[in-house]
Amino acid sequence: MIESLEAREFLEKAIEELKREEHLLYVSLKYTRTVDVIKNIISRMINSFSYGFEALLVHAKEKRIITDYPENLALRCNVLKEIFPDEKALHDYIDFYLKLRKINRAKYTRREEYRRHVTMTVVVEGETMEITMDSIMEDSQKLKEFIHYVKEFLFGPQEEESQHYFQ
Fold first, then answer.
1. What is residue 164's predicted lDDT score, i.e. its pLDDT?
2. For residue 158, what is the enclosing H or E element?
3. DSSP H helices in the chain
4. What's the pTM value of the predicted model, to 2 decimals?
């Protein structure tokens, strides 16, 4: 596969955001147990997904699949769905990312802060969602899978020693 320096840089930015998100998840949230930390985790996840999508768009531009892509993040998602219609996993990641953005923008309530079952409750499109420590850990796993997906999409299957953030 052709290695793209710019796509690699965006992938590295996505990995850096993943590391920050993991620190918030496994250190900050564990000890503070506040909704503010959950909000920050969601923001880091959104940033990481955005960088991953940008890496894919840069790759598509370099392969001359597209000539340019929009600045608007939601429109970028539409472009990705159009240029990679057969990538069901990518479509699922895009839908998950868009859901995270809606959650991040929604008004929220706090419950059981400073306790194990700290909960952020939001209403998105008429659906009440509760974000807990357990659910945010599942979401974090999806982000790791997405980073792994992008890396394999751009550069092919990777060797075992470089898999730390991609398992």
1. 52
2. none
3. 5-23, 29-32, 35-62, 73-83, 88-105, 133-155
4. 0.91
